């Protein structure tokens, strides 16, 4: 499915996105390096596996989507790929939760694109999928990413020490979360209204 709000969109990642995805990723390598997940070194005596190709990554993401465990999106702005957003860790049963991770092209950061994308994805999780809770885990030093979720009203719940392997080491992360009961009318409308209030 495709989710849109004005010039901002979320759509499933595809193999044919390889050229645009690589261009944006390479151009933003230094901008993203401090926040990108890395694979920890293998145990002594074991060799590290090969890094997956773009097509292998897309196949894995789409397989997880087919199994109902993930929603892998690219973020578009004016019909151009500018980032990625993944709803992952989708868990059903008594938990009904998921987490959201994202990155964006530095060239368009600060324009409200990523808060809009996160709002679209979160509302979809609550109103269409029927999930109960959405989490976003962010390194404490990543102030721009924290602002994204704070603008949307996600609650800060605390610190998870050495939670994810990022930029070559295990890093602490702050947990932000929302439950469906906290936003019965969704967060996109609230975000839209808040932006209108701050328009000169």
The portion of residues assigned to helices is 25-40%
The strand count comes to 8
Uncertain runs are none
**CATH level-four homologous superfamily name:** Gcn5-related N-acetyltransferase (GNAT)
The share of residues in extended strands comes to: 25-35%
| Level-1 CATH class name | Alpha Beta
CATH architecture: 3-Layer(aba) Sandwich
Rg from C-alpha positions?
Answer: 17 Å
How many domain regions? 1
CATH level-3 fold name? Aminopeptidase
Name the average pLDDT. Answer: 93
The ordered string of helix (H) and strand (E) elements is EEHHHEEEHEHEEH
Biggest pleated sheet: 8 strands, mixed
Keywords:
eight-stranded mixed beta sheet; 6 helices; 200 residues; alpha+beta; Aminopeptidase; 8 strands
Task: Please explain how this structure is put together.
With 200 residues, this protein is of the alpha+beta class. The chain has a single domain (3-197), classed as 3-Layer(aba) Sandwich (Aminopeptidase). The protein is built from 6 helices and 8 strands. The protein has an 8-stranded mixed beta sheet with strand order 1-2-3-4-5-6-8-7, sandwiched between helices. A hairpin with a 2-residue loop joins strand 7 (155-166) and strand 8. The longest helix is centred in the middle third of the chain and has 17 residues, at 113-129. 30% of the residues are buried. The mean pLDDT is 93.
């Amino acid at each position: 499915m495709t989710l849109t709000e004005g010039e901002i969109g979320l759509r499933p990642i595809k193999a044919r996105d390889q050229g645009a995805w690589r261009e944006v990723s390479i151009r933003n390598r230094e901008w993203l390096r401090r926040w990108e997940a890395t694979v920890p070194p293998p145990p002594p005596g074991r060799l590290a596996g090969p890094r997956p190709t773009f097509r292998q990554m897309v196949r894995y993401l789409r397989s997880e989507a087919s199994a109902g465990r993930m929603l892998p999106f690219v973020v578009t702005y004016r019909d151009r790929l500018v980032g990625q957003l993944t709803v992952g860790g989708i868990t059903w049963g008594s938990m009904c939760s998921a987490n959201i991770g994202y990155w964006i092209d530095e060239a368009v950061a600060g324009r409200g694109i990523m808060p809009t994308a996160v709002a679209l994805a979160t509302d979809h999780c609550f109103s269409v999928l029927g999930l109960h809770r959405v989490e976003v885990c962010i390194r404490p030093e990543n102030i721009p990413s924290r602002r994204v979720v704070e603008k949307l009203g996600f609650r800060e719940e605390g610190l998870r020490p050495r939670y994810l392997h990022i930029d070559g080491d295990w890093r602490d992360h702050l947990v932000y979360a929302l439950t469906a009961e906290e936003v019965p009318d969704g967060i996109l409308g609230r975000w839209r209204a808040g932006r209108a209030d701050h328009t000169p």
